[in-house]
Write a structure and sequence with these properties.
Number of helices: 12
Distance between the termini: 51 Å
CATH class of the largest domain: Mainly Alpha
Strand content: under 5%
Number of strands: 0
Number of domains: 2
CATH superfamily of the largest domain: MetI-like
CATH architecture of the largest domain: Orthogonal Bundle
Largest sheet: none
Helix content: 55-70%
Shape: globular
Length: 309
């Protein structure tokens, strides 16, 4: 490795020779590769944003369709974002499904994640395997299985129960496959938490419920919020499972798939850009809020440990 000695002034004072390390060219390979991969993965999003301003669509102005030629720029599609009623209805259906699906999946998944992260019990390995299986199973297999279950329930009608394919079956299906993702996210957060923090609170005569809500919950809150956002995005984005159980109900992905046979209207790119921007803003706000919550819980737990000593 090349080295550079100290200047003559330092050498005159009797300082030993100092070696200055220089970065090898190989140290730039990983950063450059990372940047290239990020640009590659984000390029479809950038293209979507660009096509939302495309002034060269196919077809007439009454029925425009996205073209491969990109000519800048027009805000006509942004001003006419609500012009396609079927698209708006499908998008709002996706949001109506995603919110309750993410909410219930977060509750069930968080309870499972906390249990798996804190306790050891017989059947823990089997539970972990089932959660992994729910993630590893191809969506087409899961979708066909859910459709068969709903058909069987409709034929048997236990206690008068009827599950006609539609918005309810989509919501139940999304809750089912989102629980595993939330459970894994929360479990990782719980396993990374310092258990001595709860012990310090209990040393100060805090009840288990008080220690949980004052110490544990704020520390694992970022994992719970991340699980909720992940479940919401998975529900909003899902096509394969939804296509099996939706019946005549259209969500945003299924509507876009059907419209792609005749040509995608430019408003799809506009809505996609809106959803992407909202997702980025929510992620940033959540990250900031979670950081503050974690710091507050850490200060409280540190104070508890200091008082316990």
């Amino acid at each position: 490795m090349s080295a550079v000695t100290v200047p003559a002034a330092e050498a005159a004072r009797g300082y030993p020779p100092r070696r200055i390390k220089r970065r090898r060219w190989t140290s730039f390979i990983l950063p450059v590769f990372t940047i290239v991969m990020i640009v590659y993965l984000a390029s479809p999003v950038f293209m979507m944003i660009g096509y939302s301003f495309n002034s060269q669509p196919l077809g007439n102005l009454d029925n425009p369709r996205q073209s491969a030629e990109l000519v800048c720029c027009t805000f006509a599609w942004w001003s006419g974002i609500f012009d396609i009623e079927e698209l708006n209805s499908a998008l709002f259906t996706s949001v109506r499904v995603a919110l309750p699906a993410a909410f219930f999946a977060t509750i069930f998944g968080s309870l499972i994640g906390i249990t798996l992260g804190r306790y050891r019990f017989s059947g823990r390995g089997l539970t972990n395997f089932v959660i992994f299986l729910a993630i590893a199973v191809p969506e087409i297999v899961l979708g066909s299985a859910l459709l068969s279950m709903f058909v069987a329930v409709n034929e048997a009608k236990p206690a008068g129960l009827s599950l006609v394919p539609g918005e309810l079956t989509i919501t139940l299906s999304h809750i089912g496959f989102s629980i595993a993702f939330v459970a894994i996210t929360v479990r990782a957060r719980v396993q990374g938490m310092d258990s001595s923090l709860e012990s310090a609170a209990q040393d100060l005569y805090a009840t288990p419920s008080t220690a949980f809500f004052k110490i544990t919950l704020p520390l694992i809150a970022p994992g719970i919020v991340a699980g909720f956002l992940l479940a919401f995005v998975l529900s909003l984005d899902d096509f394969v499972i939804t296509n099996f159980v939706n019946g005549t109900t259209n969500t945003f992905p299924t509507w876009v798939y059907g419209a792609s046979r005749l040509g995608v209207p430019p408003q799809v790119n506009v809505w996609g850009t809106v959803l992407f921007t909202v997702g980025i803003l929510v992620a940033v706000v959540t990250l900031v809020a979670s950081g503050r919550s974690t710091k507050k819980a850490a200060r409280s737990s540190t104070l508890a440990m200091a008082n316990a000593k």
